[in-house]
Each structure stands twice: as C-alpha cells, then as structure tokens.
Amino acid sequence: MGRLETERLLLRPPTLRDVPALFEFLGDPQAMQHTHLDTSLRQCRRRIAVHERRRRRDGYAPWTVRTKQDRSIIGWGGIYEDPFDPGWGVEVGYAFHPRVWGRGYATELAQFCVDLADRALMLPELNAFAKADNTASRRVLEKTGFEELGFEPALGRLHYRRARG
C-alpha cells in the first residue's frame, strides 16, 4: 500500500521495537477502559504479531500511528478482521495514548480508514463497536458516516456499520 499518511499522521505496520511505546497505552487501564487491555508486554507483542499475520493474509491490519510533527507513537488502529473475536466482518478500530485525547486524531484515522476501504480496498462495508458510555468513540463513528445498528450482547457493545459510499 506504500506510504500511508493523513494530514497529521504517519501510519505503518508495527514492529517489535514499537511494542514498549504501544504498551504505554494498550496496557493502561484508563486508556483501554472501553476495550481490550493488554496486561503484559508479552501479551501486547502477541496481539500485534497475530494482527500482522492477518495483514499478510488480508492485506490490512492495524497500524502504528505516529505524529508527523515529532514522529512519536501516539496510537494503534486501522482496518482489520479481529482474530481474537472473529465473525463480525471487517472493522475499524483505534486506541490512542491519553496524552493526545481530544485532538481529533481518532476522527482523522477513522476517516482515512473509510476512504481507504471505499477507494482502494473496495470493501462493501465496515463495522465498528463502541461501549455505550464511550461517547468520544461514538462521536468519531457518527462523524465518519457509521450508523448505529444496536447493542450486541455477545460483545457488550453497540454495533455500528458503514456501507461503501
């Protein structure tokens, strides 16, 4: 897919060197209060490795998200089929370090994912999931064209879907 970037973000497949910086937030109970928490560096490394195997198979998986400004790692996310909770189709997901919350990075990444899914990957739809009390993530999904389908008891989350535009 070549170099992937947005106005303020650089996106690339994660490497093992990224794991300590990613674990700063993927292993932070506050940052991950609405989704899966990695409880050790080993678990974080495994999650990333499993997603990278899916990238080789599917052609897409979450990226390490860096700022263009200083190239610091601030997030992890993208388009993927969740290997840990399969059967929900292609999803958009993201997690960001709390130090950058409220700056619009999640919306910028989600919009990039929508555009990529529509124009390059030609995916018929994208799914996303958010806990009902995660108002920030729900707002991101609504701003990027996702429609709420309802509560999924199996996941304990609201299910969102966006058809190709």
Automatic annotation (TrEMBL):
InterPro entries linked: Acyl_CoA_acyltransferase, GNAT_dom, N-acetyltransferase
Gene3D superfamilies of this UniProt entry? Answer: 3.40.630.30
Q: Which positions fall inside the N-acetyltransferase domain?
A: 9-165
Q: Which GO terms describe its molecular function?
A: acyltransferase activity, transferring groups other than amino-acyl groups
Pfam families, sorted: Acetyltransf_3 (PF13302)
Name of this chain's protein: GNAT family N-acetyltransferase
What organism does the UniProt record list as the source?
Answer: Pelagibius litoralis
Organism lineage reads as: Bacteria, Pseudomonadati, Pseudomonadota, Alphaproteobacteria, Rhodospirillales
